[in-house]
Design a protein that fits this description.
Elements: E1 3-9, E2 12-14, E3 20-24, H1 25-31, E4 38-43, E5 49-57, E6 64-67, E7 79-84, H2 90-95, E8 99-101
Parallel strand pairs: 1-8, 2-6, 3-5
Antiparallel strand pairs: 1-7, 3-6, 4-5, 4-7
Length: 111
């Protein structure tokens, strides 16, 4: 695990979009996520788990928007966990410290 946004709330779901998850740029920075990075989404409300990629959302907006087919995997207000992973050398992995962020789940802002 490289980065984790633990428990953010879905604010939008846009089916008519090519795909991805839109994430508030403040949250991306805090969790060290980069645009187009692959992420796994785990939905705490319904147990769905799926893979997509990140696009930048408006800074300070609190947006967590599932786009395209992923929009069918969530409902507005669902709480999700967003995780990215990285490959690294074995010795580096033993001491690597991931970025783990626990935002305010009601506002999707940093506490």
């Amino acid at each position: 695990m490289k980065s984790k946004l633990h428990c953010v709330t879905v604010t939008q779901a846009e089916l008519d979009y090519i795909g991805s998850v839109t994430i508030d740029e403040d949250l991306m920075d805090a969790a060290n996520l980069i645009e187009n990075e692959q992420v796994h989404i785990l939905n705490k409300n319904n147990g769905e788990r799926f893979i997509t990629y990140v696009i930048k959302g408006e800074r300070g907006s609190g947006v967590i928007c599932l786009n395209g087919p992923a929009a069918k995997k969530v409902s507005l207000g669902d709480v999700v966990i967003i995780i990215s992973y990285a490959d690294m050398e074995f010795e580096k992995a033993k001491s690597f410290k991931p970025w783990v962020v626990f935002p305010n789940t009601e506002t999707n802002t940093l506490k």
